[in-house]
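Q: Structure for this?
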Amino acid sequence: QEAAKYEKKVMVLDFVTPTPLGNSWGLGGTCVNVGCIPKKLMHQAALLGQALQDSRKFGWQFPEEVRHNWMTMTESVQNYIGSLNWGYRVALREKKVTYENAYGEFVGPHTVKATNKRGVEKLYTAEKFLIATGERPRYLGIPGDKEYCISSDDLFSLPYCPGKTLVVGASYVALECAGFLAGIGLDVTVMVRSILLRGFDQDIANKIGEYMEEHGINFIREFVPIKVEQIEEGTPGILKVTSKSTKGNEIIEGEYNTVLLAIGRDACTRKIGLDKVGVIINEKTGKIPVNDKEQTNVPYIYAIGDILQDKLELTPVAIQAGRLLVRRLYAGATTKCDYVNVPTTVFTPLEYGACGYSEEAAVKKFGEENIEVYHSHFWPLEWTVPSRDNNKCYAKIICNIQDNERVIGFHVLGPNAGEVTQGFAAAMKCGITKEQLDSTIGIHPVCAEV
Amino acid sequence: MAWEEKQVRGYTEFVQTAQRFHGRPIFALFCGDKDAEGKSWCPDCVTAEPVVRKELHNMPDESVFIYCLVGDRAYWKDPNNEFRKNLKLTGVPTLLKYGTPQKLVEEECFKAELVRMLFTED
């Protein structure tokens, strides 16, 4: 849409290869269809469940049992997503961007072939190309995985309640999904191969795990599934999962209605003909290395988003990179995308917002003696009356002693962490120091004043 | 069989007609009432109607096109009228594909390209 503003002739080729179970979706990419948007809505559904329980202590009266209907939630979520898909179609058309629901692949210099779902092929040429094909969930490569397991691509539109679920993985996707599934009342187990939330501050990752465990989610640590078999067909059916310890020969078995795989995502760069135009990719990870102008090794081909090597896999980063790229190409701008101090939030039952360095990364980069960590537990006022945990919420900032105690890491674990973090991210972009933070008077009574 | 048109007035008649054709693609155009000379109180509806009619041949086979007059201006302006409350309509004219989130509102209905896209989308 940005390029069309500058009167360029633009075409978008978007195509979703169906999941092993036949699932597909509309225009908008992962975030809109099978990522952030449905995730946050379902997380909200779980939070509302908790709120209903808390509300009794605040005086609300209603019958003992309150139940959750999966189909009602899924229908509302899918309806909203459908309106977003439609909105994008209208927006592209209004801005005169040609849209084809077809699979694009390079066949030669400056040329792509687009194949639609009926197999009809068309060729297109262009001056410049932008690759933003994203990633798809990885499968385990064990017997029964593609036939019986689901991934996040299937979860948000699952036409039946998943029931007793085994979540394989310890990524934020795994923990967020496990979190809201348990929050709506399902029996959830998480199978973790080694650590939780690799790449995130481990001190906080462990607190998140502990909280989830204390609130009814089972964790099986240091095991990996080696086989999935179907015991009973159905929606959902019953699956038997056999798993092996990573530390020995112990084998365990478990029965679940649904097995959700969330062990990682692979870039969609292997089947789009990049070899035909000479674009170099990292053979091992499939990611595309680019320079700081998002340009690949082939000057007229650019790339943004999750497929980039060594860059953050976040929707707003991709959007920002894309907009700035187009402005540099067609509006004479020079601003490059700033990948430093990008705030993120993990929407686990106890939300985690972060910006900047984790404690481990700060120690590694600056040395333990050069950083100072300030931290505190806090008890949200809203949690006092319903007697919710008083020592779980936590905030931590990491400062660089050698640079005026500049805040280089911000971490908060508690309700509305996303909302809290956004403002502090802006402050960090301006280079806020500990002294400035201290001299900012707090708003009371809110969690953020800590 | 090609497509057919049904003309209705008011919310109850609209819902009854839509239910009758459950299972077939249903498109609906909502406009303000017309006076004795056949002119609507809603100027945008006057502009949109010919544009929409010209694209009707693009609807899939077996489609039903419901042309619905919502009521007079006063009824429409009431924030609690049934079209606003139950169908979540926010303005007239509105052209929508019944049972989906796909719709075009007000000036969007003047654009033949968008109307065609609504009729041929899947």
